[in-house]
Write a structure and sequence with these properties.
5 helices; two-stranded parallel ribbon; DNA-binding; globular
DNA sequence: CCATTGACTCGGA
DNA sequence: GTCCGAGCCAATG
């Protein structure tokens, strides 16, 4: 387990309810500007072990981009439960909901 | 050890 | 505004 990965986990756990961050944003804060895909992969494989709020992380365009339909629906539902508006296509308004640093 | 796998991003067309 | 190609790199098997 690399330091970068631990940082990513810590950052994800600190995202407040009702807010979202992008993969790239998390990667930059964790010290690896090019590590967006690693963030994605970390969530994909480690979200259960570390009980991460993975649904609060979306891509740079403010969209839920997930291949698995079940997970897509789950993420959309979880965000809406926290008061985040999500369009049927999975778009979120980053200007309103993104955590700024 | 080497190859594959991605919930991505950026810049250019 | 959209689409595409190249780059990215830790985890996993």
């Amino acid at each position: 387990m690399q330091p970068f990965t631990k940082e990513v986990i810590r950052i994800i756990q600190n995202i407040p309810s009702g807010k979202v961050m992008t993969y790239g944003q998390v990667a930059r804060l964790a010290g690896n500007p090019r590590g967006a895909r690693q963030v994605a992969r970390i969530l994909h494989s480690l979200s259960k072990k570390y009980q991460l709020p993975w649904h609060r992380v979306i891509n740079a365009r403010g969209e839920i981009v997930i291949s698995d339909h079940e997970l897509f629906t789950e993420q959309k539902r979880n965000l809406e439960l926290e008061g985040v508006e999500v369009s049927p296509e999975g778009k979120v308004n980053l200007h309103i909901y993104q955590v700024q640093n």
